[in-house]
């Protein structure tokens, strides 16, 4: 058999073996280990309430009032005062539109957007605009972050308590329960997962 033919056959066999090992066996092994060791995370960290899937603890979502005219594309969604609100999202929390606005710190459009958000949030929560936390007026890089700062969560307590007729102390305890510390104990800041917080809120009697 010519050398060049043997070389090609060897390469073809190697290709088939590596395809089976790395393209099939290895992914199945890793997926199997993940399913056994981390079943919740391996399946998307799905959050359920009363047996119904309501989202993922990894992906933020909006908590808005129903639109008066769902067929009107120009109608702006209004936040529901009964829920803790997430930080803004450049993609309206649509996973298919994940990303930031790409506006820099010197952008006049971004500065005006932040000013408008600050005024709207201050009026919505009934607080001084100067006290509105920065994460309440700026979107995350992905536009899908489910976390807000502890300060922003606590800013919303009085509004949610009034809308639901729930004691503020109850809400503060929920915030404490769903506050996550810094990554590895020193990276970033503590944050509150709004998806999990609102799930617990919906189950509060």
From TrEMBL:
The keyword Transport is assigned to this record: yes
Membrane topology label: Single-pass membrane protein
Location in or out of the cell: Cell membrane
Broad class of where this protein is predominantly found: membrane
Coiled coil: none
Keywords for this protein: ATP-binding, Cell membrane, Ion transport, Membrane, Nucleotide-binding, Potassium, Potassium transport, Transmembrane, Transmembrane helix, Transport
Cell inner membrane is among the record's keywords: no
Region (Disordered): 58-108
Transmembrane residue ranges: 12-38
Similarity remark: Belongs to the KdpC family.
Oligomeric and partner information: The system is composed of three essential subunits: KdpA, KdpB and KdpC.
Function per UniProt: Part of the high-affinity ATP-driven potassium transport (or Kdp) system, which catalyzes the hydrolysis of ATP coupled with the electrogenic transport of potassium into the cytoplasm. This subunit acts as a catalytic chaperone that increases the ATP-binding affinity of the ATP-hydrolyzing subunit KdpB by the formation of a transient KdpB/KdpC/ATP ternary complex.
Name this polypeptide is given: Potassium-transporting ATPase KdpC subunit
Organism encoding this protein: Kitasatospora arboriphila
């Amino acid at each position: 058999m010519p050398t060049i033919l043997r070389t090609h056959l060897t390469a073809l066999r190697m290709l088939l073996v590596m395809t089976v090992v790395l393209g099939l066996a290895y992914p199945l092994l890793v997926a199997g280990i993940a399913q056994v060791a981390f079943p919740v995370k391996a399946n998307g960290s799905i959050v359920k309430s009363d047996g119904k899937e309501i989202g993922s603890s990894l992906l933020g979502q909006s908590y808005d009032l129903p639109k008066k005219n769902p067929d009107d594309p120009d109608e702006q969604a209004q936040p529901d005062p009964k829920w803790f609100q997430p930080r803004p999202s450049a993609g309206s929390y649509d996973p298919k539109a994940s990303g930031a606005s790409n506006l820099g710190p010197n952008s006049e459009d971004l500065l005006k957007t932040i000013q408008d958000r600050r005024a709207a949030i201050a009026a919505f929560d009934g607080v001084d605009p100067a006290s509105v936390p920065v994460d309440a007026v700026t979107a995350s890089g992905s536009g899908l972050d489910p976390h807000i700062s502890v300060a922003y969560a606590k800013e919303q307590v009085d509004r949610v308590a009034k809308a639901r007729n729930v004691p503020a102390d109850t809400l503060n305890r929920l915030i404490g329960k769903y506050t996550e510390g810094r990554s590895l104990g020193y990276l970033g800041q503590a944050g509150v997962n709004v998806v999990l917080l609102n799930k617990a809120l919906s189950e509060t009697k």
